[in-house]
Write a structure and sequence with these properties.
Length: 410
């Protein structure tokens, strides 16, 4: 017993290996596994002991979780391990998984499995792998000597050197670049940990501060420092990071001056959104732009508002209306407008008082890239009603889906 206690004390000081307790979703301990002996891009795993009477799927589930953690998260490229001769069930298990026998001693067979073999096994047995992996460990990447807990989807790609803080949430199909830093509660226990939403990309050496949410499919450029929440599909860059564009939005050519009157209204790929070149009269005494309600502007307004003195780094809009229609004219300076119907997105540049953009109900609208002198005039078909706004992009997508399904059903 004295020797065992001494060994445990010695093991507790080791920083190059880790034991894990395999638990059921209800928290019942089912076994143990150890990761150790890192050799460049390969890791070793063993001490794999399963409780008598554990469910039959525990072996394959725990093996898949070991590979998900070591390959998908820690970014190892292969594994190596020894299996005691005579342990036929374990030998067969690893060989079915794709491991190749490389050598033997009087007691053990040695195995290796490369990245392709692991990926093949992960795809073959994917139905056994939980969608989310909860990682609770003492060390991960460069995070020595600190408690670590994060929720990381198994499909996320996290490159070497990335720092993931306490209670950070990383959703599906996220990519975290090399040496990126996602701060959590370990930096401020009273704060909310950062959340990286589905499909987002965090560039190399970027930093996301505590409490920040990076929206769905947003892109943080390498080296950026994110100090404010990033909207869905936004592209941010700099220190502090500001919005420089949006994903999947080609800027529409809106200069139709000199073309035939029939071509002055451009129909967007975004549902029912239209761009209009309004009548422009040039005169030595001054220029005039004119539009008629229920003709050039396809509704009769009950309200208008002006947006001006917007700092260049700021973004306006980021909401949709359930009922209200809007018509936008940048009467001075310029700004960019993104229109999104939940399926298609298009970006427009309003840089003349003779250019107007119609946004129908259930269109997610964003205005950004305001010039210092920009003044945006917005005509609205309805009086102000806070209940008419949808301010969360997830809720907007859900509402579009429900409306589409209802329409199809009818």
């Amino acid at each position: 017993m004295r020797n065992k206690k001494a060994w445990l004390k010695h093991y507790a000081k080791q920083t190059d290996q880790a034991y894990f307790i395999i638990e059921s979703l209800q928290g019942e301990p089912l076994g143990t596994v150890r990761l150790y002996d890192a050799q460049e891009h390969s890791f070793c795993w063993g001490s794999w002991i399963l409780k008598v009477g554990a469910p039959q799927t525990v072996a394959i589930e725990s093996a898949l979780m070991v590979y998900a953690y070591a390959i998908d998260y820690l970014k190892f490229q292969a594994a190596h391990f020894d299996v005691r001769k005579g342990n036929e069930s374990v030998l067969r298990f690893h060989e079915r998984f794709g491991a190749l026998r490389t050598s033997e001693t009087s007691m053990n067979f040695s195995y290796k499995i490369n990245f392709e073999g692991i990926s093949t096994a992960q795809n073959r047995y994917r139905k056994y792998l939980p969608q989310l992996i909860n990682i609770n460990s003492r060390e991960c990447h460069q995070m020595s000597n600190q408690d670590f807990k994060a929720v990381i989807d198994s499909s996320a790609i996290i490159m070497p050197g990335a720092y993931i803080g306490l209670d950070v949430i990383i959703e599906d199909k996220v990519t975290i670049g090399p040496n990126a830093v996602i701060l959590g509660k370990d930096e401020n226990v009273s704060a909310t940990a950062a959340t990286i939403r589905s499909g987002a990309v965090i560039g190399a050496n970027a930093t996301v501060l505590v409490g920040i949410t990076v929206g769905i499919k947003a892109v943080v450029k390498p080296g950026s420092v994110v100090t404010r929440t990033v909207p869905p599909l936004a592209i941010v860059e700099g220190n502090p990071a500001i919005i420089t564009g949006y994903v999947s939005t080609a800027i529409s050519i809106t200069d139709n001056q000199g073309k035939d009157k029939k071509e002055l209204t451009k129909y967007s790929k975004v549902n029912n959104v239209t761009f209009s070149n309004l009548t422009l009269v040039s005169d030595l005494r001054g220029n005039l732009s004119v539009g008629e309600f229920e003709k050039d502007i396809p509704f009769k307004p009950n309200r208008y508002f002006l947006v001006f003195d917007v700092p260049t780094a700021e973004t306006r809009g980021e909401h949709a209306h359930k009922v209200c229609k809007q018509f936008l004219v940048c009467i001075k300076g310029s700004c960019n407008v993104v229109a999104d119907d939940g399926v298609n997105r298009e970006e427009f540049v309003l840089d003349s008082p003779a250019k107007g953009l119609y946004l129908p109900p259930m269109t997610w609208g964003i205005q950004y890239h305001y010039s210092p002198d920009a003044c945006l005039l917005v005509f609205a078909s309805e009086y102000y009603d806070s209940a008419d706004y949808i301010r969360d992009y997830d809720e907007f997508i859900k509402a579009v889906f429900e409306k589409t399904n209802t329409t199809k059903t009818i």
